[in-house]
Amino acid sequence: MRKLWLVALLFLAVACGGTSSTSASPEQPDGSPTGTDADQAVSVPAAPAAPSGAPSGTPSPVAPAGPTLHPRKVPWESATPTDDGRALDIVWWSGVEPCNVLDHVEVTETAREVTVTLYEGQDRRSPDAVCIAIAILKTTKVQLKAPLGDRKVVDGAK
Predict the structure, then answer these.
(1) Which range is the signal sequence, renumbered to this chain (predicted)?
(2) How far apart, in whole angstroms, are the C-alpha atoms of residue 95 and residue 129?
(3) Is the Cα dihedral 25, 26, 32, 38 positive or negative?
(4) pLDDT tens across 31-51, in order?
């Protein structure tokens, strides 16, 4: 739908953007297009191709930098056991810093599951920062008190 609006606005800009002549000559009546204006071809760029799927790439590693302003729970995408199950690599979608900074990570371990909750907030040093809205894939490593084993990993933000 956005592409349709873009093409429509571009068409209107091209259609309404023509200039008119205010000087009359014996060959052409006042306001008629001149030879150079009438002979010009207007090309409209094609709409950009739709993305083929979700963005991919290598996550940016980050470490908790709290305390931040207004920390909130953030859902994560994946948790991969590392270091023989004694740690988890957590991957989530975030935004640019200083507006989206990893504040801290809470890890609650029981015999049956490990609950990991990420908290993000705004950097205290930049309370009035304005950031672009762009998704960034981030990762952080959390240590476990005991190896993961058969325990289930749960997102504490969901």
Answers:
(1) 1-24
(2) 13
(3) negative
(4) 555 555 545 544 444 444 434
pTM assigned to the model: 0.64
Question: For strand 113-122 and strand 101-109, is the pairing parallel, antiparallel, or unpaired?
Answer: antiparallel
For 32-41, 57-66, 120-129, which range has the lowest pLDDT when averaged over its residues? 32-41
CB crowding 7-39: b at 16 or more within 10 Å, else e: eeeeeeeeeeeeeeeeeeeeeeeeeeeeeeeee
What does the alpha-carbon distance between residue 153 and residue 158 come to, in Å, rounded to a whole number? 12
**Centroid of chain to Cα 5:** 22
Size (the chain), residues: 158
Residue with tokens 């309370």: 127
- The answer to whether 140 and 80 have CB atoms below 8 angstroms apart is no
SS3 sequence, the chain? CHHHHHHHHHHHHHHHCCCCCCCCCCCCCCCCCCHHHHHCCCCCCCCCCCCCCCCCCCCEECCCCCCCEEEEEECCCEEEEEHHHCEEEEEEEECCCCCCEEEEEEEEECCCEEEEEEEEEECCCCCCCCCCCCCEEEEEEEECCCCCCCCEEEECCC
